[in-house]
Amino acid sequence: MKNKNILYLLGSGRSGTTLLATVLNSTSSIHTSGELHQFYTYLKDRSTCSCGASINDCEYWSLILKDLNLSTKEIYTFEKKQNNEEFHRYIPFILLGKKPSKDYISSQENLFTSLTKNNDKNWILDSSKYIARFLLLNQIPSLNIKGIYVVRDVRGVINSFNKQVQTPKKPISTIFYYLLTNFFGQLICWLNKDVVKLKYEEFIENPQATIDQIYNKLLGYNHGAISLEDNFIIPHIIGGNRLKRNKTIKIKKDIAWKTSISRPKQVFYYLLCFPFMILNKYKI
């Protein structure tokens, strides 16, 4: 049986992870499955895969469900366990030794076993971003997990959350969320040698260097060149942002915040997140 190898994207939402995950899916060793913290909720609600079909009817996910053979009771139990144990407020407790429950371990082991079985690549990419989820999965001995901590200029994150689509947030709420997720993301990056940090802006400027960094530092071998002119095909994913509806996606800059946010507000938001902006070498 293949090893259950997981690449995990962690950090704040609206940091370009859907684009990064889609590009990584086009490479030789990585299969992107989406935001797997939503898997059991998708099952319960019969939500839609990025292909447009219900997760129960999707040609890819139906294979996973056939393997898992879950009862309705198991779906509700696993969803409740996952949602309860992955809350942000539990991050300090997990860092201090809180363990995942048996149901949590069983549900995640079975899921990743099936995902590994039903594709021909060596690594499953989970783009959930939840810090607590990464810490819990990292405690399961049967899973080999490595992390990619993605950071983005807070003003780009604020501008994305300002759009009245898909869970919008007000700027101050976004800043609190940004500070929380990046505090723990940076801490884990410092403590765990199997986590690398990537800047969204550097990925957009030089995607090939980002892919090379992930392959060299985490997977342990080189990867060939990617075609930057390609329309990258969005795989069968759950979660993700509205871009997944487009079926394909191109790498392009998103610097709309520089014109849509006034200069005084840009400076104000920068100062509120000053430690992370300086640490990550963002300019005021």
Short summary:
The chain has 14 helices and seven strands. It is an alpha/beta fold and 284 residues long.
Number of strands: 7
Distance between the termini: 51 Å
Say which CATH homologous superfamily is assigned.
Answer: P-loop containing nucleotide triphosphate hydrolases
Alpha-beta classification: alpha/beta
Shape: globular
Mean pLDDT: 93
The CATH first-level class comes to Alpha Beta
Major sheet: size, sense and barrel closure? 5 strands, parallel
- Main sheet: which strands, in order across? 2-3-1-4-5
Q: What portion of the residues fall into strands of 2 or more residues?
A: 5-15%
Helices, by number, come to 14
Query: What is the H/E string?
Result: EHEHHHHHEHEHHEHHEEHHH
**Count of spatially separate domains:** 1
CATH topology term: Rossmann fold
Helix content, binned percent: 40-55%
CATH architecture: 3-Layer(aba) Sandwich
Q: Low-confidence spans: pLDDT under 50, at least 5 residues?
A: none
Radius of gyration over all CA atoms, rounded: 18 Å
